[in-house]
Design brief:
single chain, alpha+beta, Ribosomal Protein L22, Chain A, 5-stranded antiparallel sheet, 3-stranded antiparallel sheet
């Protein structure tokens, strides 16, 4: 059973504040049967379609955790949360269960780490990737980086180049997921800073999906093994008081949000 700090979770999701919950996914031998009771028939069918046991377990765990978080926020049972899908496949909470609230969310996971981003009143996108040395970053660069971005990373050391490519990749993914345009946009048409700053600049977007000035991208402090990114509308970033803190539930979720007033992300522990 998933246990969360319910009163804290409800208080932390407020208008124009982006909350990101970070958590560990189960190992291949872990029992996940209790997690699946709240899934819809469609989600159960999707889970059964995974041929690799680990992928199935991760999908069930992430969907169940998402349902529990949204259920706490909306004050309904996890199994009562009903999702709809945009023409490009982006999920949203149906009007039937939203209670009139505009709760937006986004999910990403890599290896055994997952992120769930939630924001009331504004779109949100998150992405996470491993800094695994086995990942062929040059192949990624050819697929996702614009020419000026490729020229920029050519001046980096090997390690800086690797991190620069991964950062650019996840920053673009976060933007695409926030906007909800799916794979209709060539990532090479999105231009971002490739440097290590916590608040990288979004330089260019294709005209058909909006103006770069209307979005902000932030790096997330996820430790040494992964890099993460958050994308929110710039109006949210400029008007919100956003920080980083732990919500301290049993399963160790963390709330991470972009800090609009400084150039770095900050962490502040909280008590149960």
């Amino acid at each position: 059973m998933i246990e969360l700090a319910g009163h804290r979770t409800r208080q932390m999701v407020t208008d124009n504040v982006a909350s990101i919950f970070q958590f560990q996914l189960p190992g291949e031998e872990d029992c996940i049967e209790p997690f699946g009771h709240c899934l819809s028939d469609d989600e159960i069918n999707r889970a059964e379609s995974f041929r690799v046991r680990r992928a199935k377990q991760h999908y069930i765990h992430v969907r169940a955790t998402l349902r529990h978080l949204l259920g706490l926020i909306l004050e309904i049972a996890p199994q009562d949360v009903v999702f709809g899908y945009s023409p490009t496949g982006k999920p949203f909470i149906s009007e039937a269960t939203s209670g009139g609230r505009t709760i937006q969310f986004n999910v990403s996971h890599c290896d055994d780490v997952a992120l769930i981003g939630i924001c009331e009143g504004a779109e949100i996108g998150v992405d996470i990737e491993s800094i695994d040395q086995r990942i062929e970053v040059d192949e990624i660069a050819a697929l996702v980086l614009a020419q000026n971005e490729l020229a920029g990373i050519s001046r980096y050391t090997a390690r800086e180049r690797r991190l620069g490519i991964l950062r650019a990749w996840i920053r673009k993914e976060a933007i695409v997921k926030a906007i909800g345009c799916g794979f209709s946009v060539d990532p090479r048409d999105i231009v971002v800073d490739i440097g290590p700053q916590a608040r990288p600049e979004l330089i260019e977007l294709p005209e058909e999906i909006g103006k770069a000035s209307t979005w902000k991208v932030f790096d997330l402090p996820l430790g040494l093994s992964h890099v993460g990114a958050l994308a929110v509308p710039s109006l949210v970033a400029s008007k919100s008081t956003i920080g980083v803190s732990d919500i301290c539930p049993v399963d160790g979720y963390s709330r991470i949000v972009a800090l609009a007033s400084t150039t770095t992300l900050q962490r502040a522990d909280c008590e149960d």
